[in-house]
């Protein structure tokens, strides 16, 4: 599969990457791997630890991960009943399946020259599928990698906020998140004023910048989206800087927030990596 990203979208991506969210076009919404039947078959082949589902209707924004209501179904049952069960399904790391690994490589291969010219070699390429009931909500969160969300079926609106917006994501939340803490962000109604809503339908995509908070609302039909993500040496260093800040804060210090692209975080990243090596050496 080649030529699924139009030249106009490649130019748009070149103009905005990696800092600005944007809507772009794509040409594989009708791909046979993205039908509900194909995705049910994929879910049946996947590792159980890479399947996730929960109820997603009338769940207030800011609901913690641990408070999301179960729907009483298995993942496969949820996919089969997705039109009426008011739920949300996430198939994580679908590149574990060879056919979907090829799909990911083909699509990202078209954008690789643009990406690597700006942020260097791509690392940790991963693919995710979101299958959502009409009106389903995805809670506010940020992604610790660069992300393009490709819409295949249905429509949804993603509301995005400025990268690492300290009014929505405090530094302590970042530090806790990268230590294995809560995934979903707390929410206050006044946060909504800071967002940019982008609606997409089949054949459209959204580039989601690294660390940009966002939440999602599905429209009136079942939604299927493919999310393709990657990391860079810069993103790894930024994450390590957050981890190192957590160490500094435990010492009673008040470290400055990691710097945003294109500024670097090399010193803190090296400090975190050295601390991890010491911990491994002493068996912690």
Assembly of the depicted chains: single chain
CATH topology of the largest domain: Jelly Rolls
Structural class: alpha+beta
Please report the first level of CATH classification, the CATH class of the largest domain. Answer: Mainly Beta
Number of H- or I-type helical stretches: 7
- Strand arrangement, major sheet: 1-9-6-11-4-3-2
Question: What is the overall shape?
Answer: globular
Number of strands: 11
Helix content: 25-40%
Topology of this protein?
Blueprint: H1 7-16, E1 22-25, H2 36-45, E2 51-55, H3 75-80, E3 87-91, H4 98-119, E4 123-132, E5 137-141, E6 146-153, E7 156-160, H5 171-177, E8 196-200, E9 204-208, E10 214-218, E11 223-231, H6 233-250, H7 266-281
Antiparallel strand pairs: 1-9, 2-3, 3-4, 4-11, 5-10, 6-9, 6-11, 7-8, 7-10
């Amino acid at each position: 599969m080649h030529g699924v990203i139009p030249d106009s979208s490649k130019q748009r991506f070149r103009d905005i990457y990696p800092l600005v969210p944007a809507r772009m076009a794509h040409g594989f919404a009708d791909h046979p791997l993205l039908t509900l039947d194909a995705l049910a078959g994929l879910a049946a082949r996947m590792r159980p630890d890479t399947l996730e589902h929960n109820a997603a209707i009338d769940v207030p924004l800011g609901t913690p991960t641990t408070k999301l209501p179960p729907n009483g179904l298995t993942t496969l049952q949820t996919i089969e009943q997705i039109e009426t069960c008011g739920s949300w399904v996430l198939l994580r790391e679908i590149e574990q399946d060879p056919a979907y690994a090829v799909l990911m490589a083909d699509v990202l291969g078209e954008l690789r020259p643009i990406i690597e010219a700006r942020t260097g070699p791509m690392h940790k390429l991963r693919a995710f599928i979101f299958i959502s009931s009409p009106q389903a909500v995805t809670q506010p969160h940020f992604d610790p990698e660069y992300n393009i969300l490709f819409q295949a079926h249905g429509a949804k609106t993603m509301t995005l906020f400025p990268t690492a917006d300290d009014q929505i994501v405090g530094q302590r939340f970042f530090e806790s998140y990268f230590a294995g803490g809560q995934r979903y962000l707390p929410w206050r109604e006044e946060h909504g004023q800071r967002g940019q809503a982008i609606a997409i339908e089949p054949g459209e995509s959204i580039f989601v910048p690294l660390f940009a908070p966002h939440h999602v609302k599905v429209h009136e039909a079942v939604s299927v989206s493919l999310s393709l993500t990657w990391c860079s040496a810069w993103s790894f260093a930024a994450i390590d800087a957050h981890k190192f800040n957590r160490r500094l804060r435990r010492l009673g210090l008040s470290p400055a927030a990691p710097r945003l692209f294109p500024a670097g975080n090399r010193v803190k990243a090296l400090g975190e990596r050295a601390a991890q090596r010491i911990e491994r050496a002493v068996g912690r």
